[in-house]
Fold these 2 entries.
Entry 1:
Amino acid sequence: MACGLAAFIYTTLPDMEQARALGEALVKERLAACVNIFPGMQSIYEWQGALSHDEEVVLIAKTVREKADAASARMAELHPYEVPAILHLPVLGVHPPYLAWMLRQTDAAG
């Protein structure tokens, strides 16, 4: 399994519509090869001194390391939250044919 070339970027959004819009932008702009969206996540957090319970949508962008910073910056630009959670998650291995596809989809193959 190849490793070191792939990156996952995790964020949460308020609803499916905004998650889809963000995901489509990342894929169309070739900042991500693929985006996974998981609806129905329950979040509990403190914001501006108040405890909040919200339903959110998780978005994970699958990209290559050389595009991760640009993808995160674009994500922050398009994100509806004042302080979005944009987290880079470690990828310990990638099936080589999938990595090759990711490189082609992000124009990072050379």
Note: Strands lie at 6-13, 34-47, 50-64, 86-89.
Entry 2:
Amino acid sequence: MVPVTHLRAGSTFEDNNQPYIVLKYEHTKMGRGTATIKVKARNLKTGTIIEKSFVSGARVEEVSLVKRKNQFLYQKGKEYFFMNPKTFEQFSISEDVLGYQAKFLSEGIEVDLLFLEDTPIDIELPPKLEFKVAETDPGVKGNSATNIFKSAILENGISVKVPLFIKAGEKIWVDTRNGEYVERVK
């Protein structure tokens, strides 16, 4: 059992026999009452996102996940297929479980698969990935005292805001946690 005050973004816990991963953690103390812990968590089996509140002294069951490197192979319908490069064993994960992360998968990319009792339940992407800009509006010169961004569509179909100097065909780094532009590839 782990105290709820130790939960942070990325922590895993079990509640009502369901495994969750914490997306957002908030600790609130109001007046003379006890503190309240609010977490936004994703169910690792179904992919649904819930918000839970706990009193500060509560405890939850810890879930231990095993992390293994795997390579993304292909998508078929709503299923995404991965392969262990050492054993050549293949696994599939539903698009409903992957959610937003599915957009960043491209053939051959290496990701960490998270396993719960030998069942793959989630992936962990690298913090930033390289993508080629497929199309973007031309940069308009003018008031550039502040950072000005324009829309760009990447090779995988994701729309990202990029600085004015980025042109179609250039490669950029994108943060996989929030889908934002990081920098131009050097």
Note: The first strand starts at residue 2 and ends at 3.
